[in-house]
Amino acid sequence: MELEVGDQSMFVVRGRDGVLRGFRNVCPHRGTRIVEGCGRAATLRCPYHRWSWRLDGTIAGIPDRAAFEPIDDDDAGLLPVRVDTWEGLVFACHDPHAPDLSTFLGPVVDRFRRYELAAYGTVTSASVRIEANWKAVCDSFLEAYHIQGIHRQVMPFIDYTDLHYEQWDLHSHMVVPVGVPSPSGRMLSPTDVLRAMVADEVFHGAVLQELGVGLDAEVPEGLTARAHFAALNRAFLEQHGVSTELNESQLVDDHHYFLFPNLIVNHFGSSCLLSRVRPAADSHERSWWDMWILSRVAPMQASAPAVYDGAGTDMLGIIANQDIDCLPGVQRGMHDLGLKQVRLGTNERRVASFHDAIDLFLDAPD
Ligand SMILES: [Fe+2]
After folding, report:
1. Based on the domain organization, do 10 and 125 belong to the same domain?
2. What pLDDT is stored for residue 337 in this prediction?
3. Which terminal residue of the chain, N or C, has fewer Cβ atoms less than 10 Å from its own Cβ?
4. For residue 304, what are the domain limits?
């Protein structure tokens, strides 16, 4: 599987021995890219002059080798990159001096044990091209303030004003209360709130629909919408043979983790939205939002993601499309000659921390 980040490309292969190995996606002969996308292969072969390598990166063949100055096999292997795994996710790293993955993730590692993310299956995945810098895309994930800007339809069941934040050195966590209306919806009854959650087409709506809870659902007397949903979600998991230690908040709320620099995990109790933002190869004003919708009860399956070329798509749901539609305007606006600074409020503190962390890396000696 190839991973392109900006104009750099690397790929990861699982060998016959089951070991994951990563390599720079470049032929040591004339610099051609070797693989594209994902697939299966017994041998890796450069498409230009047919140099070939075993899955462990050692050289397997150089056509007409006698035409070269003697080449040492050790000098003709693929260039390795570091690979590690965490919770079923594969990470690759260009930097030989970077700390190991679990040190880098720090407190996040312990925090995620309860979710058993590696047991989740992929419901759907996609890559969307966005005409905005990768950091502008990350910024939009890092705050819930824009819920009252472009996602107003969720305000009946998400209180964007009552968030909880945790900031570690680089990574951060934000809890967005679900099943509680924003202040403008405080007159809504628990049943109104639950029905708004049913109408939401993604995460909570999908769970409720699978449970047969429809738009005529009632919250039992004396219960809040969130307590009722938490119980339904717990029952949903148990129905699928998953007994969970998750508490009410973890079963209902959006537990939003930002893993610096570009991975976002939104955990919703029995489902999860995993987002990765990558700078595009051809312009710093373009990026790729790769996303995976995961479910604790979905079967494991490996399939290539759908690729959407910058256009919104119904398959991603209304919230994602609202962000996708908004971001190109953010990018264009940042070129405005009259804009001397941006202002960040306390509910955008994670945006500030993100950029502080980037500054730290930019200032660091090579
Ligand atoms: Fe958004």
Report:
1. no
2. 98
3. C
4. 106-363
What does the H/E/C string look like for 302-355? CCCCEEECCCCCHHHHHHHHHHHHHHHHHHHHCCCCCCCCCCCCHHHHHHHHHH
Ligand 1 centroid to Cα of residue 292, in Å, is: 16
**Residue where a domain terminates, one of 51, 77, 99:** 99
Structurally, the chain folds into a number of domains equal to 2
What pLDDT is stored for residue 301 in this prediction? 62
For ligand 1, the distance from its centroid to the CA atom of residue 345, given in whole angstroms, is 17
Cα of 128 from ligand 1 centre, angstroms: 15
DSSP 114-168: GGTGGG-EEEEEEEEEESS-HHHHHHHHH-STTHHHH-GGGTTTB-TTS-EEEE-
* CATH number of the domain encompassing residue 112: 3.90.380.10
The mean per-residue pLDDT over the stretch 290-313 comes to 73
Residues 140 and 191 in one domain: yes
Q: How confident is the model at residue 18 (pLDDT cuts 50, 70, 90)?
A: very high
Ligand 1 center to residue 318 CA distance, Å? 10
Give the per-residue pLDDT at 88: 93
Going from the Cα of 140 to the center of ligand 1, the distance in angstroms, rounded, reads 6
- The CATH number for 62's domain is 2.102.10.10
Residue type, 171: H
pLDDT value for 266:
96
Alpha helix segments (H runs only) across 202-340: 203-210, 225-239, 248-252, 317-333
- 299 in the same domain as 153: yes
Rounded to the nearest whole angstrom, what is the distance from the C-alpha of residue 122 to the centroid of ligand 1? 22
Is there a single domain that holds both residue 95 and residue 111? Answer: no
- Pair 197, 58 in one domain: no
Q: What's the rounded Cα separation, in Å, for the pair 182 and 157?
A: 7
What tens digit of pLDDT does each residue of 86-98 get? 999 999 998 999 9
Q: Which residue has the higher pLDDT, 333 or 127?
A: 333
* CA of 204 relative to ligand 1 center, distance in Å: 16
Please check whether residues 118 and 76 belong to one and the same domain. no
